[in-house]
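#lab-general

N.A. 3:47 PM
ok so I finally got the sequence cleaned up, no stray characters, all 171 residues accounted for. can someone with queue access submit it? mine expired

B.Y. 3:52 PM
send it over

N.A. 3:53 PM
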Amino acid sequence: DVEISTDEIVAVPGSQEGVAHLGLTLCNPGDVVLLPNPGYPVFEVGAYLGGAELYFYELREENDFLPKFDEIPEDIARRAKYIMVSYPYNPVCAVAPASFYEELIAYAKKYNIIVVHDNAYSEIVFDGNEGISFLSVPGAMEVGVEFNSLSKTYDLTGARLSFLLGNRAVL
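B.Y. 4:20 PM
back already:
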């Protein structure tokens, strides 16, 4: 449910490489990157190589594995370059509702943070849940980008076919 123009798409040789290179490209020493804990290790790589400070926000079962933005110190949020999110989320199998994305977009706008959504598992959901695109939520294209991949959904892991969609300035 997202309309994308050709200048809002970039092909990448695998989401993993895309996530690492995006962080390396966006970050400078002194920036902060907000990362999930637990989190996929590559989320850290590009930010680390770009000289950014890594700040880990906790994902807890009692909060449906969604971040609690009020637990991120304001001074950290003000220095943040981007926040990494990923739903449906591996390894905890959490799916985020549209209301979470609305809150995320408002948070990103408040602190001028880029949202990077790893949506590689968008089609692998169970129990009546739906893996939605972050970009389908009003305001998302203003603040972020989303990775997706053919690796998981179509079992093409060796083909490394992935893409990054979203905000033109970030792309």
